[in-house]
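Deviations from the work plan: none for this task. Representative record:
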Amino acid sequence: MTTRKWWMAAVPTLAGLALIPSDANSTPAPGDPANISYMTFSGTICHPKNSTHAARISYSMEGVANDSTSSAEVWCTIPLNDRLIDDKVDPAVGLNPYRSPPLMLYAYAFDRHSSQNISCTLLEMENDAQPFWSWGSWRSSGSPSSFQSLKLSNGDPSIEFHLRTATSLVAQCTIPPKVSGSTPSQLISFQLRLCTTNPC
Amino acid sequence: MKRWLPWIGGLVLLAALGGYWLRGRLSARATEPKLEGDVARLRAEVRALRKGLALQRPEPPQYRLAPAAPEAVASAGSEEPADPDAFRRGLHRELIKDDMEVALNAQTLDERFGAALEAQLEQLYSHPEFEGTRLESVECSPTLCRIASQHDSIDARRSFGAQAAQHAPFDTEVFYWYGQGEPPTTTLYVARSGESLPRP
């Protein structure tokens, strides 16, 4: 006769537990804001650097354009979503010091100048409006007829950035002058992406 | 009579076994309070050891490091910072600056590169947009540089911070550190081209 030991009952129980997915309770449902992995903003969020540059730019549904024969500088405040930034603290660092998960910022643009490029620098600002961290720079290249995607930084697809304060994010961009007989160069939109893969 | 002898022997044996079993039970019960006492004493000892270790540890950084923001200074006689959030941000900056210094000092200084950069910066600071800012020192390792500047006023410092990232060599990854004393100062930790700043 086979004697049943108490631990024999534990074996199938433990095996059953091992089959339950570990993230069964942490997977957000479709439509849950926790699923947000990118945000897109129109180039119309950009403001001229000062009154001199204000006279050079125009806005449309295609974003912000430089209609003048001089370079135009614009500052674009990138809205931060608390679901994308605050609620997903990098577990490797914890809350203090704060570091956001890896992010990428893309700028979509039309660069219609043959020699000058659209370039942007990204600044993370403190509450007192002084820069805390900055990254540069994105540059378009050439003057193709289709739009371009400018990506931080220097075209290396593996480079991402982390926010340390999550207060505000500003892109300083320079749009080259309009070439006679051509449509103006313009910044169409920005896209802030949460890196879900490594590399981004 | 002889028929009963095995039965009597059996009963005696059973009584002996029963007595032995009963003695063991009673003895076990008698040792239980002793064991409980030992466990309690051991727990108290572990607690005392842990407390002793905690007392030997250096104070946590949030109490060791001075807050960078003046508004974060704790009121007299109070252990809690007046503005915990500003205190946390100040601590955060301190920790990042410490990381930068460690990274800078862990490598051999690149004096040749530093001297060339100093000459480049002297020229950059002579531009009208950097008016009111003077170069104090430049120190470079193979991956990053520490560039210290002094400003005539807080406004000059704000103007410098807003402009710097658009110019080489600040068009890489930069961490901004603002001195609290007078005159206003800014120390920039600048990643050399193709490099990133240290990450926690």
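The CA atoms of residues 118 and 175 of chain A lie 5 Å apart.
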